[in-house]
């Protein structure tokens, strides 16, 4: 009977590696795991987890021998880490290997939003260009004052890229960071939004940052501002964002993540000043392969009783 269970929608490559290297049993979701007979759950030692459904204490208790959860992804807000620690369960994640992809995407979304890629492509595809019709002018991206909310691993990569676009860098974190000269620290998100033209959201998700981008932060950004969110949908007060996009209180937004995803609030879907993407921050073949390898190295270390490379608890 396998002692490892792989939960989630793995690629063929990762599924094969988990089966071959760990003799892992695969299920699509936590709900499917919960439906396994008790005899099949009781000896499971480790979970290779991929997904965003809540992995809470009650679900951990369905696996009474569980000692390790190796998460596929850097964001582990779906896992109740406190519940895991109190049960003696180690948790790992996959940081750093995805920084470049997520930062690339954030900057690409920001430029695509400023330069009106979607209407411009539509202008060509519809034949309007060929018919000699005029396309309204877009807005310049380079040289803006940008605010990075959360100068962690990904936030720093975004800031480094934006510095190359001649932007003035402002950031908010819980403490000052060692940064290049000229970057400005703000202790408060509202102050950050007030100082910045555009705002990049790169803080962790989870209950501690829920609604961190509040109505006040959005208002402080002002009518020319754009919000780019690659962190988690929960970080933004989505009602306040929708109201601001509808009223023109901000210029626009570019979102890779949504509250309640993959369901997206229908009011957002049709908005012309929103650039929406279906959570593809780390979705390249190269990065997903690196994430899978790191997940499996962590899993192997925990099963062998060694310290994992990237522990969470
Ligand atoms: P990280 O290095 O841990 O940085 C997280 C940032 O969040 C830090 O700036 C940290 O602040 C801040 N933070 C943590 N706890 C906080 C709290 N309680 N209150 C306020 N700020 C808090 O994480 P990362 O590797 O950059 O990843 C950031 C997030 O990006 C992940 O958690 C994940 O949700 C998201 N992500 C999304 C995608 C995607 O596909 N769109 C892909 C990967 C990651 P300090 O600087 O003060 O420590």
Automatic annotation (TrEMBL):
<keyword id="KW-0520">NAD</keyword>
<dbReference type="InterPro" id="IPR006140">
    <property type="entry name" value="D-isomer_DH_NAD-bd"/>
</dbReference>
<feature type="domain" description="D-isomer specific 2-hydroxyacid dehydrogenase NAD-binding">
    <location>
        <begin position="107"/>
        <end position="281"/>
    </location>
</feature>
<keyword id="KW-0521">NADP</keyword>
<dbReference type="InterPro" id="IPR006139">
    <property type="entry name" value="D-isomer_2_OHA_DH_cat_dom"/>
</dbReference>
<dbReference type="InterPro" id="IPR050223">
    <property type="entry name" value="D-isomer_2-hydroxyacid_DH"/>
</dbReference>
<dbReference type="Pfam" id="PF00389">
    <property type="entry name" value="2-Hacid_dh"/>
</dbReference>
<protein>
    <submittedName>
        <fullName>2-hydroxyacid dehydrogenase</fullName>
    </submittedName>
</protein>
<dbReference type="GO" id="GO:0030267">
    <property type="term" value="F:glyoxylate reductase (NADPH) activity"/>
</dbReference>
<dbReference type="GO" id="GO:0016618">
    <property type="term" value="F:hydroxypyruvate reductase [NAD(P)H] activity"/>
</dbReference>
<dbReference type="Pfam" id="PF02826">
    <property type="entry name" value="2-Hacid_dh_C"/>
</dbReference>
<dbReference type="InterPro" id="IPR036291">
    <property type="entry name" value="NAD(P)-bd_dom_sf"/>
</dbReference>
<dbReference type="GO" id="GO:0005829">
    <property type="term" value="C:cytosol"/>
</dbReference>
<dbReference type="GO" id="GO:0051287">
    <property type="term" value="F:NAD binding"/>
</dbReference>
<feature type="domain" description="D-isomer specific 2-hydroxyacid dehydrogenase catalytic">
    <location>
        <begin position="39"/>
        <end position="313"/>
    </location>
</feature>
<keyword id="KW-0560">Oxidoreductase</keyword>
<comment type="similarity">
    <text>Belongs to the D-isomer specific 2-hydroxyacid dehydrogenase family.</text>
</comment>
């Amino acid at each position: 009977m396998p002692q490892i269970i792989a939960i989630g929608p793995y690629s063929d490559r990762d599924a094969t590696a988990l089966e071959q290297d760990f003799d892992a049993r695969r299920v699509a979701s936590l709900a499917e795991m919960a439906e396994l007979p008790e005899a099949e759950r009781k000896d499971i030692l480790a979970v290779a987890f991929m997904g965003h459904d809540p992995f809470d204490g009650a679900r951990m208790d369905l696996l009474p021998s569980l000692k390790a959860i190796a998460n596929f992804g850097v964001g582990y807000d779906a896992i109740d880490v406190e519940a895991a620690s109190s049960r003696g369960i180690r948790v790992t994640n996959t940081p750093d290997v995805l920084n470049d992809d997520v930062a690339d995407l954030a900057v690409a979304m920001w430029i695509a939003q400023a330069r009106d890629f979607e209407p411009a492509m539509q202008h060509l595809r519809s034949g309007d260009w060929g018919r000699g019709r005029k396309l309204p002018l877009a807005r310049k991206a380079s040289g803006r004052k940008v605010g990075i909310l959360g100068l962690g691993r990904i936030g720093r990569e975004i800031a480094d890229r934006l510095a190359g676009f001649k932007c003035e860098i402002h950031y908010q974190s819980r403490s000052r960071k060692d940064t290049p000269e000229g970057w400005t620290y703000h202790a408060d998100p509202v102050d950050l939004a007030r100082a910045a033209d555009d705002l990049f959201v790169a803080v962790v998700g989870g209950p501690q940052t829920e609604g961190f981008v509040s109505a006040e932060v959005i208002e402080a950004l002002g009518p020319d501002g754009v919000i780019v969110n690659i962190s988690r949908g929960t970080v933004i007060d989505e009602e306040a964002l929708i109201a601001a996009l509808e009223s023109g209180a901000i210029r626009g937004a570019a979102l890779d993540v949504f509250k309640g995803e993959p369901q997206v609030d229908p009011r957002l879907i049709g908005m012309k000043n929103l650039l929406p993407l279906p959570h593809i921050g780390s979705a390249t073949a190269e990065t997903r392969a690196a994430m899978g390898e790191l997940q499996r190295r962590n899993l192997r270390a925990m099963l062998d009783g060694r310290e994992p490379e990237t522990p969470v608890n």
